[in-house]
Fold these 4 entries.
Entry 1:
Amino acid sequence: MNLPIRYTRLLAVGCSVLLVGITVAFLAIGTGAATAQTTNQTNQTGGEVVTDGLTLVNTSYEPVEDGGNGTLSLTFRADGPQAVTLYDAGAFRQGGQLPSKTKVIEGTVTVEMPVTRQGNFVGVTVVTGNTRYAVPHRIAGESGDSHLFRGRPTWQDTQIAGLSGFAGGLLVISGVAYRRVTKDEGEVTRVL
């Protein structure tokens, strides 16, 4: 079946636009699902629910002058008195006895804990009754904040690289198809 050149051009452009639209839709769906999986559980008043009656409201990190280890401040809100033990998560790599701090939380209380820095993160493990709850805290302003060019590759980096490669390949194929279609040789040739 021979189509006039203008219809062939329209068909090539339409297919290219359709392929790009489908790819963007699939990437958007995949990214949305990944974001929904990593959302922290929060209660109605805000914060992360550690266990029934205990909520982690806020965390902040204060490094020491030399840029080494520092202090992690955790603000808890408890409905009633609860014993909470904090363990320095960064000290796991060093082995031996883990630094810990135990405190009874009632109402809103801020607990400060010296922590060991591991890369761009510090953290503690919160232990209360039968619950073990990890609290990682990313240190802001570090060189690892940019996921595309610094630090270890992430899933977002993979998606960006894949989309860029696909879009570049599609652009080249579309350009070659358009060039071959617009040549006035009188005959349309197959691109792929």
Note: The helical segments are 5-37, 155-182.
Entry 2:
Amino acid sequence: MKKIHYILLIAFAFLVSNCDSNDDGFYNNVYVDIPNLVSIESHSSTYTVGEKLYIDADFSRYLSDGALLDIYKTTGATQFAFSYVIEKQISATEWEVVTVNDSQLDIVKGYAQNGSYVYGICEYNTTDETYEYRVGFPLLSPGTYRLSFGYNSDYPDKVELRSLSPATRLILNINSLVTGLNDDGYYNFTVN
């Protein structure tokens, strides 16, 4: 009887020691670095109250990270999600998140939802086989502002685009360098 207990204890110890604690393997996550998929629309760093700050993305289903990737075929995703936050300076060292009603966002392409950050979704266009996003954030009051893509990203100067893949498909995380950000990962601008 003691032998059975020892055998069961050894078998249990073996099973526990071989558990996969790597969530990325379990959830089938893959990471690639492909720069400049998302951009801040060209504008001087000074805006006027009532103007909109536009964020754009328009990237092909065929991307290269050294090898040609068909991200639509690989992931089955018709959408890629990312986030960014806009803050207003309220004192020399303090910033507060700027929020607006979703109805105030100028959604030209894709989808966006605003809360403590803007949740943006690039939507697949079957006609030209690209993922598209273009949303304008209204600038409603004067002040000093900054925009950051680092809210849900591991890197201050990159935005993380995550495929919204069907349950059984690969989840692709694209870390994409964003030009126009300072060393701390912010796009600073003023509204007059």
Note: The helical segments are 2-17, 23-27, 71-75.
Entry 3:
Amino acid sequence: MRVSALWFLLTAAGALLLRAHLPLALTYAVVAVTGIWLFSAQVMVYAAADRVYPAADRATGMGWVTGVGRTGAVVGPWLGGILAAGGNAQLGFVAFALAGLVGALAIGLVPVARRVGSGAASPAPAGAQTEAPAGAE
């Protein structure tokens, strides 16, 4: 999860770097590397869900992880278009960098959430006895 957080931070840095007026070839390189960081960070989040969610909740957890990612995929271009149409195209890079920072923070907090969540009572495995048998007092 640390690598995923780092990749999100690098994505944020790449988005901010795109605000600069770089030579065209360098701009293409920054866009390519930033896209690779973002895509691979999201894939690592999917992989981490296996260790974060218990087996009984894993499908629901993956649904949430995917839903958040897809929401960003819809809202990002919309927000970029709104900002560009309003003459604030440079703010789009800042907004995308902030999204990268939020991703890094969120995945960085997963170990903390796991520690806090591990103190909660977890359901007994299927077939496990949850009460003392009658007469075994």
Note: Helices lie at 2-17, 24-52, 58-85, 89-108, 110-118.
Entry 4:
Amino acid sequence: MTPGQLQVLDCVRDMLTYDVSPSVREIAKACDITVSQAHGRIAALVDCGALERGAGKQRNLKLVDLPDLRAIPTDAIRAELARRGVVLDALSTRTRRAVGHEVTCAADTCGAVVQFGHLFCREHWFKLDEGLRRGILRAFADKDVSTYQRLVAQARDEIDGCAA
């Protein structure tokens, strides 16, 4: 795998954390390459088996051989991480729970099912400061992953503070 292909694979992996497969143009923009180069690198990754294309023509990239960690008990994951010497900041319930094809609110204490593309349920979203809501939307639209993750963590902390 070439460094360019690895860059595209990392980009796809990062974008899939938002539960939406990226378009070729989004990949090209994020990797600072042309659309033609993005097509070539994606085709090479599909050929080598690192990516696969799903049904449809657009936004259909999937990572290959990605284990579904939801089926593995948390204690087993913690034990394996400890065996490897990996220390996490915190193992918490800060991951969104997926039930079948449904996704729940990102608030730790909420199990409400949200619409595809929504981060929080309506109740929790409107408990957030308007500036924070706008910042989250702007970071998502700009594909600024680090700012987006920081603002979502801040939003969760704010919601947890309201619940306490």
Note: Residues 89-93 have pLDDT under 50 and may be disordered.
